[in-house]
Amino acid sequence: MKKLFAAWIVAGLLNSCTSTPHQAATTASYNTDGKKVWVYSTADSTDLRLTLTDSLSFAKKGQPLETEVMIFVDPTKTFQSYMGVGAALTDAAAETFYKLPKETQQEFLTAHFDKEKGLGYTIARTNINSCDFSSGSYTYVKNGDTSLSSFDIAPDRRYKIPFIKEAMKAAGGALTFYGSPWSPPAWMKSNNDMLHGGKLLPAFYDSWALYYTKFIKAYEQEGIPVWGISVQNEPMATQRWESCIYEAEEERDFLVKCLGPTMHREGLKDKKIILWDHNRDLIYQRAQTYFKDPEIEKYAWGIGYHWYEDWSGGKPMYDNIKRVHEAWPNKPLLFTEGCAESFDVTRYKAWVLGEEYGRSMINDFNNGMTGFTDWNILLDETGGPNHVGNFCFAPVHGDTENGILIYTNAYYYIGHFSKFIQPGAKRIATAPSRSQLLSTAFINPDYSVVVVVMNETSNNTPMYLWIDGQAVQSTARPHSINSYIIR
User: Fold this and answer.
1) What is the CATH number of domain 84-418?
2) Per-residue pLDDT at 20
3) In CATH, what class is 2-81+426-486?
4) pLDDT value, residue 25
5) Is pLDDT above 80 for 26?
6) Which of 72, 260, 408, 423 sits at 20 to 30 Å (Cα–Cα) from 389?
């Protein structure tokens, strides 16, 4: 197996996102001899939460019967690389963190960033200037300072920067860390307001482009390495909170003519730049518009996206991720934000909170997603703080009155991916034989295989995990998610 994996490296197959579902890398074979399958489960109406429930051995099994429920796994067909899983370290998360007792703070850090005892998060996002999940609006410069001589990240030093440093330490010293702006300063915008949309005025393109570089350098001076930035959070949404509108051509031209050249000139050409950073609905049109300009190849790393396109009651547009991945397989697709909206304190234990994450992550990974960033990693017992009343769920809430953490089921569902799949893994082929089961699978750099199987139904479902004539028998409990670790 080590020789096989080395052959993939030689062949260049571990480069990020270099194959589409129709261009899968192919290897000669995968041998299950001597391997065990360790099963970890999270299930409704049980105490199982990322719990080791079984240890299984492969046995010969030829042609499956039509009446048998199967999860077919083919490690010889590999697709995009896996970047990691993480969440946004916002002002709201940081403020909530420091309202908790020291022992609860440590519990939180271990639960999310420890690779053995927690979920092993490896990605982090933060807001550049304020966002809705800040206690108020702020920027890093004085009004009218086009030269940015007054630039100072002082607002971030009170809570957010110390919080990010704590997270980095808990993660072993490093996170893939990126920043996203919700709005330029009001005086740079057409509506003279950080809130309610508006556009960046062309007269301030150069100043705003330089602003990103100031942010990166200031954070790195604080000891926080910055992996990249996105151009704009949700550039087609006029919100009652911080927001700024870019049509596709405007975002492309700002990157090609101002932001990209400025990043290069300031010695930051190695930093990754993410386009779009909005929903799946318009993602193909945005990609098509961006990549018409060959100059964009100098600057754009890939495309970020969110999951809020089904706000009107429709279904998530998972296939749009597949379409973009098929058309531009060399451009990574990074999920940059998602959460359960409309916070309600009575719904902490609602099982659908976790299932929304599991369903989205499985479908998006199967369609080409390379990494996943949850929205707020932590919120308080009100679903905030939030300066415009846009309260939401986080997978974990801090009860600041009682000094404890409240874990929703979303925390455990996310963990079935982040805890077992290693950065640098390759997605492999998997196919359920029945629609009540969803699955995705990866082969890790240490040669272990991870198969995630989700049962969205109320039916107890006996099933087989099948690899090239060898299988183990298992059961997908009602409303459960299960990780099968083969090693």
Assistant:
1) 3.20.20.80
2) 40
3) mainly beta
4) 61
5) no
6) 408
Q: State residue 27's pLDDT score.
A: 59
SS3 118: coil
Q: Write out the two tokens for 249.
A: 């051509």
Closest CA to 417 of 374, 476, 375, 458: 374
State pLDDT tens for residues 376-422. 999 999 999 999 999 999 999 999 999 999 999 999 999 999 999 99
Condensed to tens digits (0 to 9), the pLDDT of residues 292-323 reads 999 999 999 999 999 999 766 789 999 999 99
Please name the amino acid found at residue 354: G
Provide the 3-class DSSP secondary structure of residue 170. helix
124 phi and psi angles, rounded to 5 deg: -145, 140
Tell me if the bond preceding 423 is cis, omega within 30° of 0.
no
Q: Which amino acid is at 126?
A: T
* Whole-number Å distance between alpha carbons of 217 and 271: 11
Q: Which helix (H) or strand (E) holds 385?
A: none
Tokens of 202: 């062309």
Q: Which two tokens stand for residue 393?
A: 């769920």
Ranges for all domains in the chain classified under CATH 2.60.40.1180: 2-81+426-486
| Mean predicted lDDT score pLDDT of the chain | 94
* Sequence letter at residue 334: L
134 secondary structure, DSSP code = S
